[in-house]
C-alpha cells in the first residue's frame, strides 16, 4: 500500500490537472462518506485515502475501551447505544452468568465490549418482584395452619426490596469501579473495566437469585440455606473470575481484600433478603401485632361462649 | 394561432390602461375571515357540548372494543388518547382500596402505589421499546398499554363481586382462573399491537417487560383480600 503522503499528493495533483484541462468543468467536493468521484482515474486513490481515515477513527474508539456512544449524554442516541443487543445475546449472557467456567472471564467472553443496560435493569426489576411475591407466598404457606392468620398482601415489601436491590446493583459497582480505577492509576496498570461493564456483570450475576427466590417458597430451612449456598457459589464465582485477573497484579493484600469484599457484599445481599422476606414459623415479628389482636378477639369469643 | 390570440387578449387591453393621477384609487383589500376558511370542517367551536363529549366517548369506547377483540388493526395506534388509561387506572386503584390496606401498612397497595406502578411501568416499558429500536411513538405505546389493562380491571370487578359471597377455597380457585385468563388476554392484546413495531430479533426483549407488567398487576388483583 502506498504511504498516506503519497496518496494525498496524488489526489491534489490529479484534481489540479483536471481543473487546468477544463476550467469550466463542474467540480464535486469530496466528503468522508462520498462515493468515488466521477473521474474514473481518481476513484481508487481517493477511496483508499478515505477508508484509511475511517479505519483510524475506528481504531482509536476501540482503544477507548468499548463502543463509543454516539452523541452527547443529552441525546437519545447516546442511551440507545446501551441497548444494542439482540434476544440471543441477552440469553447467551444469562446462560454465562448461570454456568461460570474457570477459563472464561464474563466481560471478555460474553460482553465483548458491547455492555448493555437491558439485562441489569430488567433482571433487577424481576428480582425485586420475585423476592417480594415469593416472600409473601412463603409467609402464607407457613401460616396456613394458623387459624388466627389473616392473609395480607404485604405490598410495602416491594418498595423495600426495590430500594435494597437497586442500591446494591448500582452503588456497589460504582464503588468497585472507582476503587479499581484508583488502584490502576496508582500502580500504572492497563486493562481495567469500564463503569458500564462493571454494572453489567453485577446485573447479570444477580440472575441466579431469581429462581433461587422462587424455590425459597418451599418452607424448609435446610433447603433454603442449601439454595443460598449454591446460588452464592455460582454468582460469586462469576464475579471473582471476572475481577481476579484485574486485581491479581496488585499487592497480595489488596487483591485478596478486594475479592473478599466482593464476595462478602454478595453474601450479605442474599442472606439479608432471605432473612427479611422469608421468615420461618419461629420468627415472624411482623405478623405479631395482628395475631395478638386477633388472638384477643378469639379468646373473647371463646369466653362468651 | 387563435388560442394564442385569445390568450394574449386578456393582457392586450392592459397596455392601454393608465391610471391618471387625479382619480383616487380606493378599495378594500381585507380578506373576509369567516366560515369559508379551509379548515372549516375541523372547527369545533360552535358545536353543542354534548357533541364534543360524545365524540371523545365514542373514540374511547371504540378503543375498548378493539381491546376486547384484538385484531391487528391500527385504530388504537393512530389516534391515541389517554382518557381510557386514566379511567382504567383510577378504577383499578379505587377497587384495590378498602381491603386490608385500611388497618395497617401490611396490606395491599395504596392508591398512589397503583398509580405509580401503572404509569411509571408504562413509561419504562415504552422507553425500553424505543431504546431497543422500536418505531412506535411514545404516547401511542402508553395508550396501548393503558387500554390493555381493561381485562384486568374487569377481573377485579368480578373478584370483588365474588368475594362478597364468601372467601373459601372454591372462590379462590374461581378468582385464580379469572385473573389468569384476563392476564393472558391483556398480554396477548398488547403484544398484538406492540410487537409489530420491533425488529424481529428483539421481539422477545420487548414482550418480556409487558409480560412482567401485567403479571404484577394481576398479582395485585389476585391478592386483594377484604
Return Rg of chain B in Å.
29 Å
How many helix segments of chain B?
9
Question: Helix and strand string of chain A, N-terminal first?
Answer: HHHHHHHHHHHH
Topology, number of strands of chain A: 0
* Main sheet summary of chain A: none
**Helical element count of chain A?**
12
Distance between the termini of chain A: 104 Å
Largest sheet of chain B: none
| Average predicted local confidence, pLDDT of chain B | 81
Q: Order of SSEs of chain B, N→C?
A: HHHHHHHHH
Percentage of residues in helical conformation of chain A: 55-70%
Taken as a percent bin, the fraction of beta residues of chain A is under 5%
Roughly what is the average pLDDT of chain A, rounded to an integer? 73
Shape annotation of chain B? elongated
Tell me the number of strands of chain B: 0
Protein name (chain A): Protein YIPF
Family (chain A): Belongs to the YIP1 family.
GO molecular function, one term (chain A): small GTPase binding
Region (Disordered) (chain A): 20-66
Amino acid at each position: 500500500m502506498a504511504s498516506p503522503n503519497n496518496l494525498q499528493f496524488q489526489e491534489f495533483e490529479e484534481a489540479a490537472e483536471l481543473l487546468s484541462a477544463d476550467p469550466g468543468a463542474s467540480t464535486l467536493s469530496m466528503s468522508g462518506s462520498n462515493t468515488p468521484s466521477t473521474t474514473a482515474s481518481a476513484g481508487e486513490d481517493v477511496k483508499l485515502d478515505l477508508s484509511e481515515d475511517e479505519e483510524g477513527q475506528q481504531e482509536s474508539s476501540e482503544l477507548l475501551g468499548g463502543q463509543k456512544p454516539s452523541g452527547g449524554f443529552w441525546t437519545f442516541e447516546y442511551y440507545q447505544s446501551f441497548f444494542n443487543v439482540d434476544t440471543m445475546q441477552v440469553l447467551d449472557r444469562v446462560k454465562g452468568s448461570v454456568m461460570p467456567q474457570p477459563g472464561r472471564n464474563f466481560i471478555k467472553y460474553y460482553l465483548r465490549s458491547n455492555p448493555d443496560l437491558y439485562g441489569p435493569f430488567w433482571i433487577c426489576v424481576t428480582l425485586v418482584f420475585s423476592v417480594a411475591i415469593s416472600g409473601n407466598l412463603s409467609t402464607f404457606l407457613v401460616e396456613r395452619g394458623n387459624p388466627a392468620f389473616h392473609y395480607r398482601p404485604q405490598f410495602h415489601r416491594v418498595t423495600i426490596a426495590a430500594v435494597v436491590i437497586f442500591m446494591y446493583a448500582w452503588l456497589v459497582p460504582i464503588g468497585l469501579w472507582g476503587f479499581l480505577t484508583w488502584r490502576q492509576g496508582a500502580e500504572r496498570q492497563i486493562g481495567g473495566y469500564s463503569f458500564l461493564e462493571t454494572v453489567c456483570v453485577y446485573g447479570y450475576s444477580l440472575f441466579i437469585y431469581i429462581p433461587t427466590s422462587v424455590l425459597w417458597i418451599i418452607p424448609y430451612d435446610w433447603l433454603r440455606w442449601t439454595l443460598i449456598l449454591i446460588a452464592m457459589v455460582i454468582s460469586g464465582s462469576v464475579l471473582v473470575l471476572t475481577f481476579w485477573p484485574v486485581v491479581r497484579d496488585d499487592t497480595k493484600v489488596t487483591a485478596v481484600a478486594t475479592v473478599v469484599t466482593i464476595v462478602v457484599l454478595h453474601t450479605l445481599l442474599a442472606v439479608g433478603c432471605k432473612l427479611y422476606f422469608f421468615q420461618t414459623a419461629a420468627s415472624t415479628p411482623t405478623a405479631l401485632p395482628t395475631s395478638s389482636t386477633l388472638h384477643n378477639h378469639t379468646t373473647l369469643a371463646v369466653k362468651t361462649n | 394561432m387563435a388560442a394564442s390570440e385569445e390568450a394574449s387578449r386578456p393582457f392586450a387591453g392592459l397596455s392601454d390602461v393608465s391610471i391618471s393621477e387625479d382619480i383616487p384609487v380606493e378599495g378594500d383589500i381585507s380578506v373576509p375571515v369567516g366560515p369559508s376558511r379551509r379548515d372549516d370542517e375541523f372547527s369545533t367551536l360552535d358545536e353543542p357540548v354534548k357533541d364534543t363529549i360524545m365524540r371523545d366517548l365514542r373514540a374511547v369506547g371504540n378503543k375498548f372494543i378493539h381491546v376486547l377483540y384484538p385484531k391487528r388493526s391500527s385504530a388504537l395506534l393512530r389516534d391515541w388518547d389517554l382518557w381510557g388509561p386514566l379511567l382504567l387506572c383510577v378504577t383499578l386503584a379505587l377497587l384495590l382500596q378498602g381491603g386490608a390496606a385500611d388497618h395497617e401498612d401490611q396490606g395491599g397497595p395504596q392508591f398512589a402505589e397503583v398509580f405509580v406502578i401503572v404509569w411509571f411501568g408504562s413509561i419504562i416499558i415504552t422507553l425500553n421499546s424505543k431504546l431497543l429500536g422500536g418505531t412506535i411513538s411514545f404516547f401511542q405505546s402508553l395508550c396501548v398499554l393503558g387500554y390493555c389493562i381493561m381485562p384486568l380491571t374487569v377481573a377485579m370487578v368480578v373478584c370483588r363481586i365474588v368475594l362478597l359471597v364468601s372467601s373459601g377455597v372454591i372462590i379462590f380457585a374461581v378468582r385464580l382462573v379469572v385473573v389468569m385468563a384476563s392476564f393472558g388476554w391483556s398480554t396477548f392484546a398488547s403484544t398484538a399491537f406492540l410487537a409489530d413495531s420491533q425488529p424481529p430479533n428483539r421481539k422477545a426483549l420487548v414482550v418480556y417487560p409487558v409480560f412482567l407488567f401485567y403479571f404484577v398487576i394481576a398479582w395485585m388483583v389476585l391478592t386483594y383480600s377484604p
